[in-house]
Amino acid sequence: MTVKITMAVDYLDLVWHSEELFDEAKIDNFVAQCAEKGVDELQWRVSALGDLLYHSSTPDRYRKDISNIEAPNAHSGRKALTEKLNTIMESFDPLEAACRSARKHGLRIVPWLTLFDDHGPLGTGTSSFVRSNPEKCWKAYDGKGCLPGILSYAWQESVEFRMKQIRELLDYDANGIYLSNRTHSRPPEYNLQAKNYLEENPESNMREFNQKNPSLLPNAIRTAIHQFGFDKPAVDAYLKQYGKEASPDDMDWWRFRGKYFENFLKKVRYEVDKKGGVLGFGLRFTDRDEEHTASLSGLNFFPENFFDWESYLTNRIIDEAHYKVDSQTAFPELYPETACTKPEQRMGWFWLGTRNFDERKEIGLRVLKAVEDNSIGGVVLFEAHSPLYYDKRHWDWIKIFRGQ
User: Fold this and answer.
1) Cα–Cα distance for residue pair 220/216, rounded to 1 Å
2) Calpha distance 258→166 (Å, rounded)
3) pLDDT given for residue 218 in this prediction
4) CB 97 within 8 A of CB 55
5) Across 155-235, where does the E strand assignment appear?
6) What kind and span of H or E run contains 187?
7) pLDDT at position 77
8) Are 78 and 48 in contact (CB under 8 A)?
9) Which of 50, 294, 299, 348 measures 20 to 30 Å from 185, CA to CA?
10) Contacts of 356 (CB under 8 A, 6+ apart)
11) Does pLDDT of 219 surpass 90?
């Protein structure tokens, strides 16, 4: 079996961790290393908390005023990161440079766009559309608020906002596009408590807040699931078709509600097919691993039955889906809905993070087991800065997954 190896590149992290400017030369050097080590494809992140890290014609192209960056509670070094990103975005287009280098070194590359991340922690990266249309985020069942930054694709305006970005990205010399449902957005009650805490403790920060309130975010997420997504176009259509009001515990409602997102994906599929590329989707933050789902980075606001992954794959709405496979539960048991899909449609996600090789070994071996069982047809290595700066032995995972 041929195992596909994808390197998921968060370019913002490469810039953050590099003391020197991660410019075109550094991008080319990094891509060359990926090719030399045996990577097949690059998944290049182009969006972060509502900002676009490529030369977009939309208002969301990354531009930051650094004059007030070092505000109370700001992340240390944030000003330096902002200055570096401003310099990069003024000097060259990092996505174009990455695509050019990928072609030079014989790698495939797909831009990586997040679909539900238009707000960021406490609204630090709100996109232009959400700023102008906060009501187009997932609306609460009681009508008293929205999930900030969790865009609702039941609204045609939301679809068009995102499709404009997608059409731009498909014009690059790439091999398609990869979409992700990762989000840094937080439930409203969590945001309010965090904001109050930071105002009362100007010398503190979000890390300290979360350490003092370890159960606040997981509990807020559990409360939010099933309580948001009651957006007027979908609610009205559901009442008309079923003759009943949408309610949080009605699975018919969530399957109906999910069709709006499926229709959005079909629009993306159409645009991808015009370019002859592939469409991948990352669902690693909607898995069954509750510990990860409730973590700071792995938020899951989406109710069961909202995404119909098997249908997306078997009907070729998407070409491949990326799954988190480091749970001790066997892959077929964790994702029974993948039974009718092909191995090459299932990619296993493996986080390298800031850990060393030995600390990731146990989880890496679980991913290897999924490879050997033919449960997945490839592995996505995330984050790219780890083998560059933290532990170069991470490159060895490529050989391990290939059985070398």
Assistant:
1) 6
2) 20
3) 83
4) no
5) 176-180
6) none
7) 66
8) no
9) 348
10) 390, 391, 393
11) no
Handedness of CA 284, 168, 270, 268 (dihedral sign): positive
Helix/strand/coil for 190: helix
Neighbour tally for 340: CB within 10 Å? 9
Dihedral Cα 299, 303, 306, 308, nearest 10 deg: 80
Length of the chain, in residues: 404
| Section 52-80 average pLDDT | 76
Start-to-end Cα distance in the chain: 13
Could you tell me the CA-to-CA distances from 26 to 29, 36, 88, 98 in Å, in that order? 5, 15, 12, 10
What percent of the chain is predicted at pLDDT more than 70? Answer: 92
Distance CA 188, CA 373 (A): 42
User: Are the CB atoms for 309 and 283 separated by under 8 Å?
Assistant: yes
The Cα 331–Cα 152 span in angstroms is 30
Q: What is the mean pLDDT of residues 191-216?
A: 88
User: What pLDDT, on a 0 to 100 scale, did the predictor assign at position 278?
Assistant: 84
- When mean pLDDT is compared across 234-243, 295-304, 352-361, 392-401, the lowest value belongs to 295-304
* Residue 120: per-residue pLDDT: 72
- How far is residue 378 CA from its own chain's centroid? 18
* Residue pointed to by tokens 């592995």: 379
CA atoms within 13 A on the CB side of 35: 16
